[in-house]
Amino acid sequence: MKTIITSILTAIVFFFNSNPSKAETTLRLSAAADHTVSQYINAITKGQVDHVSNLFDNTFIQNVTSQGKVSKFTKKQVVTFLKANENIEQQKCVASYRVIEASGNLAIARVEVKYPDFTKVDYVTLCRDGLNWKVNQITTVYP
């Protein structure tokens, strides 16, 4: 009897831990967050700014840390800057990213942009807004 109960409990635990609908949801969230980060990278490196104002949350803020100082920029300032550089020629840089944390409503990505003489790293915080992800904060550092 003890063996039967143990077998049933093991089967139940295995079933709930391998539930495919949970795995599919996580993959969709990660894919959606990845798509938003890709749009951001295309905006900063290629000037692809179609719908760029929709990319950022209304509470968006960017913190840029350089030489011991922190400069802060609002959504309006960043969108204006990006639109001023619309369709720029491909910059001489290599950009890569990875989502370092993702949950139901929050994702954090590390975006690294390597130029010939320096590297810029953006820590991009995204929040889910319905079915979409929006950037709500970027912290930029120059390691």
- Following the backbone from N to C, one meets helices and strands in this order, namely HHHEEHEEEE
Strand order of the largest sheet: 2-1-6-5-4-3
Q: Tell me the name of the CATH class.
A: Alpha Beta
| Shape-level CATH architecture | Roll
Helix content: 25-40%
Number of strands: 6
Which radius of gyration do the C-alpha atoms yield? 20 Å
Number of domains: 1
Largest sheet: 6 strands, mixed
Query: What fraction of residues sit in β-strands?
Result: 35-45%
> Which structural class do you get from the secondary structure elements?
alpha+beta
The gross shape turns out to be globular
Regions with little confidence, pLDDT below 50 for 5+ residues: 4-28
- Compute the separation of the termini in Å: 62 Å
Oligomer: single chain
Instruction: Give me the CATH fold name.
Output: Nuclear Transport Factor 2, Chain: A
* Overall mean confidence score, pLDDT: 82
Number of helices: 4
Describe the structure.
This protein is α+β, with helices and mostly antiparallel strands and 143 residues long. The protein has one domain (28-141): Roll (Nuclear Transport Factor 2, Chain: A), CATH 3.10.450.50. It contains four helices and six strands; from the N terminus they run αααββαββββ. The chain has helices spanning 2-17, 20-46, 52-55, 75-84, and strands spanning 56-66, 69-74, 94-102, 106-114, 119-129, 132-141. Strand 4 and strand 5 (119-129) form a beta hairpin. The longest helix is centred in the N-terminal third of the chain and has 27 residues, at 20-46. The N and C termini lie far apart (62 Å). The model is unreliable at 4-28 (pLDDT under 50).
